């Protein structure tokens, strides 16, 4: 047997394309948009009822959060306890989750239990009553959780950052305890009624979806769920009032061992033609383990356990952010290194070898993120709620595979400027 | 049902292959039978620090992550009190890259001083981030030594104190590697769009020539039965009081493990569970409450933890928890309630088959416990639990003399 040469890497192939499952698109008689991803061997489904967020006022997003969080707390015919018992007994998970732009109610269930579970979901979407007693419990416990979170530097930094980047609107408002205390049941009910309308909602079904399941869904959510007669969809974009201060905003914590750092700026969303290119830049800078921030600040200097950057696309905006928690004594030094890394991206062409690696990494990660039918549905949601189609991913693939050094320089100089970024430090600046 | 093939290389490395052609990806999962329980009491946190060093370059590959990322792979690892588990997920066409990377670091590390220096700092920052700079973050640094007096579960995976990590020396790193990172002490699982013949060829090519080493003997002190209740009170700068009660429970392979797991589900799985329904919703004593078992290979802990509401004295809160536990001991549960938690287990198990990484990790772990096929029988073991088992195991667990109680008292007017 000849000696194995371990210094030479085996050949590897670049991933240049990937296949996406195209959903079956239905429009139910009440106008509800339905997308069905039927695939998979397991006898299970994930069903998501997604409603566009409605806000009473831009600085009162907490009410919309509360409506979402309290969806399982009682209907005209089922108490909170009965809802919980019914879902648990059928081995299902029914999970409300609030996002910047949409509120989702997601059901994970074995297919065989759907006939027992779906009528309850219809009841929740059409007849939630937000009982006073449950609301009092929700407020009490949320305040307790908020008090714990406010002791965490990273939580405080994220709040301050959002507030600074967006101003006091749906994306930036930071509810205090007093805001919880003034939640009113009447406001919740009226908000619920205006948000949970078929014409304001999308139904995404993935897993093993039989014809019986589709028929049952149509009966319950296409016929029995009706729009309020005068309902019309309107969602005016919020006013953005980003902070003009770019000097570090420091929240001093005298006993802190670490400082939470957040910096960033408003950015471009998915529908902008530069978005995939900017995702490449983000990956190079802080979007994977081998990123420049990670290599420099963690793997060379040992200042932190984790540092990374991200690009988030919202319905009416977008933001770029860098986050880390670092030893208090190296807080200033970390800011210097972040500034250096951004400047390097703007001033020096990214080496071809690094660019090739990032390309391969991003395409491999994309392929890896398509593990099962749920992840195909997730990819669809990303584009659908940005007003795009699945062909976005062809464009994405072309951009990632074809991006040049010059384009990286152009994008870095257009979208990343350390001097103009909001900088939040919770801990000690040293 | 997760099917697999199994073979063993001449150097003792066990290899399992699970084929799943619905994905274009492959996973290479390598489990080493070493965890924090194998550490010297004066050098706690070492197994986890060592895991970080495994990414600091190996004998023939100076940089682990670069070639991995270039092949479109994502990799990571975790350390527990029992095991250290490494995994790489990548497009199946590039499977050999994972074999090359994993085999070289099993053959030998580069033992770079720079990597040791940096990772000591990184782990110290991890220690601060997760255990020191969070409200209640040090709970396991306190609860473990309260519940365990002699077994090495008395320290946390991160280590007992920062100094143990700061003092780690290169000679210790080399010795640890030679002792534990051998083919005989590992289990390799390859899953996804792969076939057994191809995996066998790659395994022999890349791992076959690694010297066998030997399976290190393990003789851990056995924790003596606890004979009286233990208690620790901490005054801390936390926003609310908190209570943690730990009971000595079964080992992972114990025949009573599944009954105990269902007991913790009855107590706190889902919004209809007993503790949530009665102590958060009906009696309004807690803002949150939870019960779970640690599920460790040596006998583990069953923990009930909660945060009482501000107006509730800690004694009242503690008494209320005990009333619920005693009820499980004194009154046999109704068949309906047992069926409910079993239904949840059934669907959780089906959902667990949706991801190849999760399947690969489970196969490796169950192989370590004795037989990977054990994973396929878990469901039946849960379904076999009876109402009488629940009562008996509750009686065995929930005794004052088997409890260790940790209480955080919030400093008045803490800000």
Question: What would you say this structure looks like, in words?
Answer:
The complex is a heterodimer of chains A (430) and B (415). Chain A is an alpha+beta fold and 430 residues long. Helix content of chain A is 43%, strand content 19%. Chain A contains 15 helices and eleven strands. Chain A has helices at 61-69, 80-89, 114-127, 132-149, 153-166, 177-181, 185-195, 211-223, 275-287, 292-300, 331-347, 352-368, 373-384, 392-402, 405-415, and strands spanning 24-27, 33-38, 44-52, 93-98, 102-110, 201-207, 249-252, 258-266, 304-313, 318-327, 422-427. Chain A has a six-stranded mixed beta sheet with strand order 1-2-6-3-5-4, with helices on both faces. The longest helix of chain A is centred in the first third of the chain and has 18 residues, at 132-149. Chain B is an alpha+beta fold and 415 residues long. In chain B, 41% of the residues lie in helices and 19% in strands. Chain B has helices at residues 46-53, 65-70, 95-107, 113-132, 139-147, 162-166, 170-180, 196-207, 257-268, 274-282, 314-330, 335-351, 356-369, 378-383, 387-397, and strands at residues 5-8, 14-19, 25-32, 74-79, 84-91, 186-192, 230-236, 242-248, 286-293, 301-308, 403-410. Chain B has a six-stranded mixed beta sheet with strand order 1-2-6-3-5-4, sandwiched between helices. Chain B is globular, with a radius of gyration of 23 Å. In chain B, 50% of the residues are buried. The model of chain B has no long low-confidence stretch (mean pLDDT 96). Chains A and B meet through helix 2, strand 5, helix 4, helix 10 and strand 9 of A and helix 2, strand 5, helix 3, helix 4 and helix 10 of B.
